[in-house]
Amino acid sequence: MHIQILSTSDVHGYVYPTDYSTLTDRHPYGMLKAATVIRQAQATAGADNVMVTIENGDWLQGAPFATYLAKQPAAEQDLLTRITGAMHYDAGVLGNHEFNYGLAYIRAAEAKRTYPLLGANIVGGQNQRILDAPYKIVTKQGIKIAILGLTTAYVPVWERASNIAGLTFEPAVATARRLVPELRQQADIVIVAYHGGFEADPATGVPTERQTGENEGYQLLAEVPGIDALVTGHQHRQIAGVYQGVPTTQPGDKGIAVGCIDLELDENHRITKRSARLLPTAGVELDVTLMQLTQPVQDKVETWLDQPVGQITGTSLAVTDPMAARLHGHPYLRFINQVEMAAGVTDIAATALFNDEVHGFDRNVSLRQLLNSYPYPNTLVVERLTGADVKLALERCASFFEIQADHQVGVATAFTTPKVELYNYDIYSGLDYRFDLTQPRGSRVVSLKYHGRAVQPTDQLDVAMNQYRGNGGGDYPMFSPAKVIREVNVDMAELIMQYFEVHPVVTGKPQTNFRVDY
User: Fold this and answer.
1) Closest by alpha carbon to 105, among 122, 129, 85?
2) Which of 312, 286, 343, 231 is CA-nearest to residue 505?
3) Domains of the chain, earliest start first
4) Backbone angles phi and psi of 59, in degrees to 5
5) What are phi and psi of 74, to 5 degrees?
6) Which strand ranges, in their side-by-side order, compose the sheet holding 426-429?
7) Three-state SS across 32-50?
8) What average pLDDT score do residues 255-269 get?
9) Is-contact 114 160, C-beta < 8 A?
């Protein structure tokens, strides 16, 4: 008997193979391609093949397609779940980004789901009607297969409290230790579907990041006996292999691949062979049936994205060299900070150039440009910080850079491995500061001034930032909800649009308030 476990994860609403940067953009990914891969695998399965399919989270938020649905009436918000329902998944798991629009949105978006949502470590999830069960046991061809659902316990660190009201997130490993032995007694095969990644190299156990509880994948492999297959996600990595004796997958993001775990069983339902691989989606066509379901909305999304938002005069806000923008500042980043300061009623703000695909704004700004440049539904907070807090935060920013062998400046490995985290480097406005990269990490901020005066450790400074950073996300423990003095519970993309409504013509200006020496 052959069991094949297929999984998608972190598709982030990318239904079609486009990043929506232009009408004609095409990329080798998307759920409609993943659907074709899954259907092909199902169609070619032999009589003794058992297929299990899992949607592993971060499906409802991300692409402009998903953003558009989130802005529609509740009765029209379930299209993404109708897609996965039509793909006949056996189970789904909530990712951390599912919570970005709150529990009511999860209920509306998942209202017509045809498969159970599993979440063993989200206490209160069933009471809030966003989960169906901690696990599911399915019987296929006489084989009992248990699927245990887990979500990264780090959600409360990033998410607004109102978006997760009534929920408690327990550690994934502790939950698995409790339930896997029970499932071993009830099922022949135990699958753990975890919307989380790896805090250590899955083969060697060597730590690859701080042990915060965000990613517990290696601990699941090494410390929880009885797991037959591990489906992971969250980090957007492409991983497939047998680690600590457990076949494991993580299929990247945006539907670039489908995770595939193969188990061979003997007549007593014992595993005799195990393997894991990724099935790339680049070379397949879009699923025709799902295209018929989604094309009308896709057309509306493209039209919606091309609506004008505002105009830019003065210095260009187009980002053509992301690394130079991070090293020397950029008018686009200065503008985003300007929006934050206006909304937060303060004169200091911080923002990030989230990734190298952020292109900023042309002279005529469209909604398409805006959502591609600020793709996250972050809201805004203002925190009252000490001068010492701000200096620590800037030291974290300064650690983003490293001087390479050719004496050029590159991105430090800690921000690229195991996961690319360019969004964890911030650029500030309202402060004058200087980094010296020849100094050791932790001592690189050599000048810090506010209104022309050196910032003292005991000074109090009000700083606007997005709510992810304000909660300490990205390894910024000097920020926390306890220091928030004002909240602006409006998505940043909406705040930018509101700014353009008041200032339909924005004058771009160079950013000159900081310097990086090396």
Assistant:
1) 129
2) 312
3) 2-302 (3.60.21.10), 307-517 (3.90.780.10)
4) -105, -30
5) -55, -35
6) 426-429, 349-352, 460-466, 380-386, 484-488
7) HHHHHHHHHHHHHCCCCEE
8) 96
9) no
Q: How far is CA 223 from CA 20, 92, 220, 400, 501, in A?
A: 42, 24, 6, 33, 55
The pair of structure tokens assigned to 216 is 């517990």
End-to-end CA distance of the chain: 61
CA 339 to chain centre: 24
Contacts of 200 (CB under 8 A, 6+ apart): 206, 207, 208, 218
pLDDT tens for each residue of 21-31: 999 999 999 99
SS3 per-residue string spanning 264-291: EECCCCCEEEEEEEEEECCCCCCCHHHH
Joined together, the tokens standing for residue 102 give 């709150």
CA dist 418 and 208 (Å) reads 6
Q: How far apart are CA 79 and CA 164, in angstroms?
A: 23
Q: Is 255 helix (H, G, I), strand (E, B) or coil?
A: coil
User: CA 209 to CA 214: how far, in whole Å?
Assistant: 10
Helices (H), 399-470: 467-470
**3-state DSSP call for residue 342?**
helix
**pLDDT, tens digit (0-9, with 9 covering 90-100), for 57-115:** 999 999 999 999 999 999 999 999 999 999 999 999 999 999 999 999 999 999 988 99
Residue 508 has pLDDT above 90, yes or no: yes
Rounded distance between C-alpha atoms, residue 405 and residue 271, angstroms: 49
* Residue 236, token pair as written in the block: 């957007």
Of residues 403, 423, 418, 404, the one with CA closest to residue 516: 403
Answer yes or no: are the C-beta atoms of 21 and 106 closer than 8 Å.
no
Helix axes 331-344, 492-502, angle to 10 degrees: 90
Between CA 131 and CA 440 the distance in angstroms is 48
Mean pLDDT, residues 153-174 taken together: 95
Instruction: Please indicate, yes or no, whether the overall pTM of this predicted structure exceeds 0.85.
Output: yes
User: Chain centroid to CA 14: how far?
Assistant: 13
In the chain, the amino acid numbered 316 is: S
Total residues found in the chain within this entry: 518
Cα torsion 267, 268, 270, 275 to 10°: value is 20
- Enter the DSSP assignment of 445: E
- For 269-419, where are the alpha helices, taking DSSP H only? 288-305, 322-328, 331-344, 367-373, 387-398
Is the peptide bond between 418 and the residue preceding it cis, with omega within 30 degrees of 0?
yes
Beta bridge partners of 144: 139
381 vs 318: CA distance, rounded Å: 26
